Amino acid sequence: MDKKKFEFAYEVYDDSSKLNEQDAWLLNEARQVTQQAYAPYSNFHVGAVAILENGEVVAGTNQENASYPVGTCAERVLLGTLATLHPKVPIVSMAISYNSKEVKSDHPISPCGMCRQALLEYEGRVQKPIRLILGGMEGEIFLIQSASLLLPLAFSSSELK
Ligand code: THU
């Protein structure tokens, strides 16, 4: 029997004033774009904004539906838009934030399992890691060097060929 373990390192910042200029800007954009979320059922408004290698910026927000499972997370709305408007262009960094009338937005949230899988697929498509900047409207910020770090033992395209 063999035991193996995963470990991953990420950076934690007290607030956005400690980030570099581009990361602070991107997080601020993600905070602002939460206003475009359509989240009448959860009241949990998520915003994601990515800066691409070619300098373009793409945003996504969660879009809910009266038939709850039809709703889509901000990250996957972003990825669909990005892959359509700027196919094959790597993402340098993606900031994710949220706002809610019901809970305090004072700590980072991280992408749900389905979005982790979708982010991993995009990293694989363009062969570049996506840096994640995770933060609420205030409080601590997490910086993660690749979305793949959030999905150990992932299922990926390499299994299919
Ligand atoms: N949500 C996102 O958009 N991204 C995440 O990373 C976590 C959850 C959305 C889905 C749903 O509309 C609402 O937040 C509450 O789960």
Question: Would you give an account of this structure?
Answer:
- By secondary structure, the chain is α+β, with helices and mostly antiparallel strands.
- The chain has a single domain (11-150), classed as Cytidine Deaminase, domain 2, CATH 3.40.140.10.
- The protein is 24% helix and 22% strand.
- The protein has helices at residues 21-33, 74-85, 113-126, and strands spanning 11-13, 44-52, 57-61, 91-100, 131-135, 141-144.
- 33% of the residues are buried.
- The protein binds tetrahydrodeoxyuridine.
- Residues 39, 42, 44, 46, 62, 64, 71, 73-75, 109, 111-112, 115 line the site of tetrahydrodeoxyuridine.
- Tetrahydrodeoxyuridine (THU) is lined by residues 39, 42, 44, 46, 62, 64, 71, 73-75, 109, 111-112, 115.
Brief characterization of the structure:
Helices cover 24% and strands 22% of the residues.
Fold topology:
Elements: E1 11-13, H1 21-33, E2 44-52, E3 57-61, H2 74-85, E4 91-100, H3 113-126, E5 131-135, E6 141-144
Parallel strand pairs: 4-5
Antiparallel strand pairs: 1-6, 2-3, 2-4, 5-6
Bound molecules: tetrahydrodeoxyuridine.
Residues 39, 42, 44, 46, 62, 64, 71, 73-75, 109, 111-112, 115 line the site of tetrahydrodeoxyuridine.
Q: What structural class is derived from the secondary structure elements?
A: alpha+beta
Order of helices and strands: EHEEHEHEE
What characteristic shape results from the CA principal axes?
globular
**What percent strand?**
15-25%
CATH superfamily: Cytidine Deaminase, domain 2
- The DSSP helix count reads 3
**Number of individual domains:** 1
In whole angstroms, how far apart are the ends? 29 Å
